[in-house]
């Protein structure tokens, strides 16, 4: 497929977006009135990240179970890395286990959704 690498553009954009939102595009957290809705946002971001990479590999014809597992590991690891970077390098950010769990939960959900999509689409 000519220009098949373009299928990775959304995945790379999501990766960069998560990095920017997790690091530079935040200020001091407000401790009063903060809800746990940000955990849903974390999970959604990593769900989208995982799905975008899985679909990119699928569309380029480079998809198999090993690739799927590597995407799962890479997305989950990226979520943990972002939490660690926040803790060690950004004054207004800190490591939160619940954020890390939300990141991995989003990754797992995206992985499972893609698997369901594959099963349904193969029956059509």
Multimer state: single chain
Q: What's the number of domains?
A: 1
Given helix and strand content, the structural type is mainly alpha
Rg value: 16 Å
- Helix amount: over 70%
Global shape: globular
Distance between the termini: 24 Å
Number of strands: 0
Q: DSSP helix count?
A: 4
Identify low-pLDDT runs.
none
Strand-residue proportion: under 5%
Which structural traits does this protein have?
124 residues, mainly alpha, 4 helices, globular
Q: Could you explain the architecture of this structure?
A:
- The mean pLDDT is 88.
- The radius of gyration is 16 Å and the shape is globular.
- It is built from four helices and no strands.
- The longest helix is centred in the last third of the chain and has 27 residues, at 97-123.
- It has one domain (4-22, 38-123).
- With 124 residues, the protein is mostly helical.
- The protein has helices at residues 9-22, 37-59, 65-89, 97-123.
How is this fold's topology laid out?
Blueprint: H1 9-22, H2 37-59, H3 65-89, H4 97-123
Helix pairs in contact: 1-2, 2-3, 2-4, 3-4
Could you give a short description of this structure?
The protein has 124 residues and is mainly alpha-helical.
